[in-house]
Design a protein that fits this description.
Layout: H1 8-19, E1 24-26, E2 38-39, E3 43-45, H2 52-57, H3 78-94, E4 101-109, E5 112-120, E6 126-134, E7 137-138, H4 145-148, H5 159-174, E8 182-190, E9 195-203, E10 209-216, H6 223-227, H7 240-252, E11 256-263, E12 272-281, E13 285-294, E14 298-307, E15 316-323, E16 327-336, E17 345-358, E18 361-375, E19 380-394, H8 399-404, E20 410-423, E21 434-444, E22 454-466, E23 472-484, E24 527-540, E25 543-555, E26 567-578, E27 581-590, E28 601-606
Parallel strand pairs: 2-5, 3-5, 6-9, 10-12
Antiparallel strand pairs: 1-4, 4-5, 6-7, 8-9, 11-12, 13-14, 14-15, 15-16, 16-17, 17-18, 18-19, 19-20, 20-21, 21-22, 22-23, 23-24, 24-25, 25-26, 26-27, 27-28
Amino acid sequence: MPEHRTPIIPLLCALLLLRAAPVCALTIDQLQAGRTYRVDRIVFTGNHALSDSELKSQMNTKERPFYLPWQKRPAFDSDVFSQDLKRLALLYRTHGYFQAHIACDLKVRGDLITPEIHITENHPVYIQRIRIVVNKRRLPPSNRLYSKLGLKPGQIFNDAPYQAGQETVRDFFRDRGYAHATTQRWAEVNLSQDAARIWYFVQPGARGVFGATTVIGNKNVASDIITRELAYRPGQRFSQKQLDQTRDRLLKLGLFSVVRLTPRLDQRNPHLVPIRLTVRERPKHSIDVGGGYNTESQFIANLSWSDMNWLGGGRQLTATVRYSNIDSYARLILTQPYLFNRRAVVGILNFGEDIQQVPPYTLFGTRFLPSIRYSFSDKTKAFVGYRLEYDRLTAVDPEIPIVLGGLVTSGVVSGPEAGFTSDTTDDLFNPTRGFVLDLQAMEAGEVFGGTYDFYRFWGQVKYYKLLGWETIAATRLKMGTGDSFGPRTNYPLFYRFFIGGEGSVRGWRYWRLGPHTPDNTPIGGLTDLEGSLELRRPIWDKLSGAAFLDFGQLSTHPYDLPFRSLDFSAGPALAYNTPVGPIRIDLGIPFFKPRGQTQWQVYFSIGQYF
């Protein structure tokens, strides 16, 4: 059979002709009627106040996503594009640039169009003065209500905080019992002076208290499950905050897709405010499928099934299966809210089968973990529980028992545990400010019917701060220690501390930093010290970058923080923001090349590294 070959010369000629195709700058009116054009790229020039991504998000004319090169380019519609230009002009007005000028050239090459949108922003309008008038009386500038507004004199006039200010003023009075409070806003813009004056007018009305609450829309969820989440009671002074808190509580139950609390203000008695609580129930059962990829766990697959109101009472039953190259498990979790009839107390029963495949060993574990969680607030929680598990080690490196002086490869871990968490960050996937504090401790021993006799505790703090120039400083510090009661064999290998790689010190392979056997298998430690410093900043559109410094080390002795033997690594990272969190690529470079490893490691993950 003759060998088939692609004709290279004609192919190169075709590519050259394509690149040499003439490019014409046209207006919308000069496009050929009836001809189908497709969008190549959308280019902005002159924009400083608004980014390319902010402008593109307002347009119905779209580019083909760079990560979908196999898709056909979107068709160009001149009518839609004309409306897009008007929409961009309106967007600039809402951001205070009332005299912004927008022009456009259409660069046409064959059937491909590249709209080049030229923006002349000109001077923005600044807020000159803000006045709040209550019952025709102007509040003095020293009144604390002014500080609650999202704008102040000297700022660029922005329509979003201007409109939100009306709700802020209204809610300020509604939080103080004035359920009938009404507000109006007025802005006077002087383009000759680039100045704006703002007024908010308030009619507070009568002060009132909460009346009875009527629940509407529930079919399968009992009314008492709903009313026990009320953050107010009849006779209590009316407060908008209490209504908002109630709505948040009900949505967190996972039972409702819509929750609406409406004060009934049409009553003859203006001092009594009944509430109409309208809900729309979600399906009782849900199935969630997810997954991800990183260079160490590789492909990760998750499947979970939930019953959000199992046997009534608002209790939740969730079954989850997870697979990865490192950690795989099957778990059944039962959550009982309002334990002991206390809203802040939740009971949890956790049954699980775990498989852990890591460099020193393979672990099979069967676990039963009952616990009680107490919420001090939405951001601060604590738990106490009991850990009962049977663990079996296989594929243990034969050097490990020699180095550790013996090893118990199977047995029961039985004993109490406790933890405390406080999280004040502003975003779960991409925090820019706030802190996270985690503390956990456990003890297991023969006195509780277990095989192993030891204790272990650790703590970690993460801190995020927004610096100037859109730069975020992210830091973390983790420390932990543990020890056996009696012989060292009473401390299980699988509860020693291991660091390096994913979720730890970048630049090392997974768990490869710290003490090891002569054949370079990690043995873990009894004291852990590690941390990170990272600077994150947007680069362009949805792309952001970071530079980091990691450090860490383990000690084989308890209470022996290894400050003098720390290993360091540093490197850059790139992240692309998506609706499910940033997709990151990190390059970790140790200061000194680790034994038996490359000079650097690449990490690919979904979500910030910490």
